[in-house]
Amino acid sequence: MSYKAVILIGGPQKGTRFRPLSLEQPKPLFPIAGFPTIQHHIEQLCSKVEGLREILLIGFYQPSEIISFVSQAQRDYSVNIRYLQEFTALGTAGGIYHFRDQILFGRPTAVFIINADVCGDLPLDEMVAFRGTKPEASCIVLTTEATREQSVHYGCVVVDADSNEVMHYVEKPTTFVSTNISCGIYLVTVDLFEQLSSAFDKRSQLALHNDGDSMEPIEAIWFEADIFPNMASTGRFFALHTTRWWSQIKTAAAAVYANRHYLRLYHETHPQRLSKQTDDGPTIVGDVYIHPSATVDASAKIGPNVSIGKTVIVGPGVRLKESIVLEGAVLQDHSCVMHSIIGWNSVVGQWARVEGTPIGPNPNMPFAKLENKPLFKPDGRLNPALTILGCNVQIPRETIVLNSIVLPHKELSGNYKNQIIL
Ligand code: GTP
Q1: 92 lines ligand 1 (CB under 6 A)
Q2: Which atom of ligand 1 is closest in space to residue 9's alpha carbon?
Q3: Of ligand 1's atoms, which has the minimum distance to the CA of residue 116?
Q4: What is the separation of C-alpha 82 from the centre of its chain, rounded to a whole number of angstroms?
Q5: How far is 131 from 299, CA to CA, in rounded Å?
Q6: What are phi and psi of 197, to 5 degrees?
């Protein structure tokens, strides 16, 4: 058996809800628990899929934005990793059809397709085993449970309880369809490429008979709209349900939520990445990742659920929890940072306080997914959220910044609450 994997990384116009952090770096490379988002996918593919031959990143970023990550990953993992650039946004399935010869080269038994903007403890090995029981499947979709209210924001899947066949697939339905939702992770065989070919022909025919006023190129194909609804009930589309942790990463809040979960997973997968309390080091509370090049004063108190990036400096008496601090940032003496993301090279001054609102699903609702709340309430005020400092922001000493978003390269001069600082 041999496998390949495609990670759909999108491109520059995607990830708008992740701003201002996606202004500096492609969202799929944003570090969560100390490592780029898609590195977690690559690690899980390498450790859980026996016979994995190649991982292809497909998107429409300029190669210069992706290539150093790819070269490093190629060195770190014993599998071939390449970036294939779409000439324009081709949708979730258009790039896969466009690069079909490269994907199918070497005749892999099956191909994983993973949306870059999901994360979790992905049961990729279980998907392989499940496929063994469904030789007729051209596609297996991983599903998870959401609440009724949240389900309508995802791809909803109606599954036959006996056979696990997908009977209906509706993307973001207007009314309730099912609490089973797609995780954006599929295992497909070569047969799926016939469906892609038919979808491509259909779009080309439509384009011939249309005025051509569509915003999308005719080559754009979407699994969620063009493929899955038609594949349901054909006897070739099956679902594997998981109750393991899974979440989307659409917003900065979702990155902090994912940070917490990936740190927890490290206990099983990479315990050496978690900081340990030492006699002469800072006080460590719960799960914390500190990059080896960071300097953290012994009188600081860090955690739980904190990731500290490359070359960060954390001064004496600093309190830091439930946050991500990105490369080059400085937290000066006695500053306090909670429920926040501190952007690259930003400086939080002495005794300053940077604080957001705690996030996370209600623990009494086991199937609740993290709410991807809109930025604004209907009355125009900001929804309570994390505080996010873009890159190279300066917070003066003895100031307070609460529930605010600060765009890159700003030097603040006072206290701020519930504001977007442009
Ligand atoms: P939204 O809620 O509108 O974001 O929709 P969604 O959650 O269904 O996400 P979307 O369909 O936009 O993207 C799903 C995944 O596919 C993400 O990982 C994107 O980066 C990726 N993606 C989206 N469009 C493209 C595209 O044109 N090309 C490639 N290669 N990837 C894409």
Answers
A1: yes
A2: 20
A3: 18
A4: 19
A5: 53
A6: -65, -45
Spell out where 30-179 has E strands.
31-32, 35-36, 52-59, 80-85, 110-115, 118-120, 139-145, 155-159, 166-171
Cβ 115 under 6 angstroms from ligand 1? yes
pLDDT tens column, 207-243: 766 655 667 788 899 999 999 999 999 999 999 999 9
| CATH fold group of domain 269-421 | UDP N-Acetylglucosamine Acyltransferase; domain 1 (2.160.10)
Asked whether the CA dihedral 397, 402, 408, 413 is positive or negative, the reply is: negative
Pocket flag, ligand 1, residue 58 (CB < 6 Å): yes
pLDDT at 162: 96
**Architecture, CATH, for domain 3-248:** Alpha-Beta Complex (3.90)
DSSP label of 17: G
Residue-range domain boundaries for the chain: 3-248, 269-421
What's the CA gap between 131 and 352, in Å, rounded? Answer: 54
Residue nearest (by alpha carbon) to ligand 1 atom 1: 250
Cβ–ligand 1 contact at 256 (below 6 Å)? no
Q: Which atom of ligand 1 is nearest to the CA of 220?
A: 27
CA of 247 to the centre of ligand 1 (A): 15
Residue pLDDT, tens place only, 328-350: 999 999 999 999 999 999 999 99
Give the residue ranges of DSSP H helices in 210-347.
228-231, 252-269
Higher pLDDT, 262 or 16: 262
- Residues 23-69: pLDDT tens digits? 888 999 999 999 999 999 999 999 999 999 999 999 999 999 999 99
pTM above 0.70, yes or no: yes
Could you tell which of 115, 246, 249 is best to mutate to test the pocket of ligand 1, judged by most ligand atoms within 8 Å of the CB? 115
User: Rounded to the nearest whole angstrom, what is the distance from the C-alpha of residue 21 to the centroid of ligand 1?
Assistant: 18
- Per-residue pLDDT tens digits for 344-374: 999 999 999 999 988 776 655 666 677 666 6
Q: How far is the CA of 366 from the centre of ligand 1 (A)?
A: 26
The per-residue pLDDT for 212 is 56
Task: Identify which of 117, 246, 372 to mutate to test ligand 1's pocket (most ligand atoms within 8 A of the CB).
Answer: 117
Instruction: Answer whether 38 contacts ligand 1 (Cβ < 6 A).
Output: no
What is the residue-averaged pLDDT of the chain? 93
